[in-house]
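lol ok so funny story. i was supposed to be doing the assay writeup but got distracted and ended up predicting the structure for this chain instead. priorities right. anyway since i did it might as well share w the group, maybe its usefull for someone
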Amino acid sequence: MEQGKKYTVVINAAMNADTTMQSITFDIFNCPSEAIHTNLVGFLPNSRLKAVDLYYFMGDGGNRDYSEFQGNDVYIYDVNAETSQKIGTVSFWMAAKKETHWNLTGSNVWKADIIDFSTPGTYRVAIEGVGCSETFEIRDDIYKDLFQISVLGYFYMLIGQYNMDMTPVPRRPLWIQDQDPSNCLIQITDMHPYHAEWKTFSNNSWDNAEDWKPYVKTGNPTNPRAIGGQSDALDWDRHLAHVSNIYDMLLAYILTEGALSDDDCRIAENGNGIPDILDEARNEVDLWLNLRYGKGYSHGLTNPSKENIIYQADNTPITAWANALNSAMLAYAFEIAGLDLKKTYLDSAVVAYTYANTLPDPMLNTGQDLGQAKTRGRDFKMMAAAYLYNLTGDRAYEDVFNEESVVTNARSLLFSQGSHHQLWGSAAYILTKREVHYPELQQNMKSSIIYHAKKEEADFVNSRPSRRGYANDGSTAWFQTVQDMPRTLIAHAIIDDPAEKEELLDALVLKPTGVWDAIRSIPFR
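and the output, tada:
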């Protein structure tokens, strides 16, 4: 089609459209095309890579061939001024191919990147003969809205939040014993994932509450303090695999040295003097502290039964280690924030750590799947020790950190699916402000994270049609549309070479952005 010409589109009656004929005037600056892919979040002015892809997969209809459009002009269109300027031409990027488990583009890919343009404003990218992208912005705080919406999303996953003055109101029911629902009961059991009869349960053990009924402890004890934690959609269970949410939120705050201080994300705690991202992490930390039974730490809560009974798992040593890490990492974040709450959670961390450390079987080799990789008891212990050392300067914690670290050289894997996960704690030691008594270990950790960030994540942006940099080993790529780059985030924060830092930033801004990614996208805000 030619710019400015009027065309009549005849629509096949089999489409069951409201009309069989429609007239349009083709204007590449005002006719959006689904084939032009930009980051709808927008771009930072100083980001050297503002990626624009050209491809269109039509399902059973196959994909469009844009080879004849190679060399066509690419324009940046100022929506407010209604002016345009040429910024480049269409070039071929890569043929369609499988990435890990799927072909994510379904098509060959061409690119029309925004080159050498950084003026803040509201724009569309237009391609000669194709049309334009959706509208996007270029501005310095482009990730602010994304961050705040993500924090708000975490708030609306919270269970037990009573705020009827908010719109929308937080999720219901509250699942608080004897309150909402009125017959809600939280019974404590002898069951946990390492129990001899765990394998006799049906699939989705945490979902099928009825299976837990025979294991209620003698005397039918209940836990009215079991309040809080985040729900995943309408899945109300809250078990130990969920604690990775805490670490991901807090890591973003720690890597930015407290830059994520927003206290106005429209959550219930707005304006309380605590950064909202810490409020959300704290809600999850508090849940796990609320699940204590005696001196121990419960492994979690089931979904409710048809009778509105929630069953609390028995205590496990690995959960005590996890609580030590939960509280220590939060205390360290509060130290960065300059808040007195540091002491409260430091005390909780020490109690949990000491308790786990004195158990006959501290479950150091037992693992808990956190999605990215199995995390062993000794991994939780090692990472808790890292933050406790940062908080206290007590060398005993640093010695434990050294003893439990898997790092022996500059290529050691800090996390590996089905084996171990020590990434969050290693970041703490690399960034420590305390005296470092194991400098070789610290340097090896730093080198390892940077090496594997490039090799296993960031470098893939140059070899995939989608230009996405997620891991290829199955540990972080088993979802089709959510790809995490944890090593790249840390590497970007710790790498010294400015050119390499820019390369890592390029990889980060090319990754797809969703709720999880928004929390993790902040180090380059």
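The radius of gyration is 26 Å. The chain is about 30% helix and 15% strand.
back to the writeup now i swear
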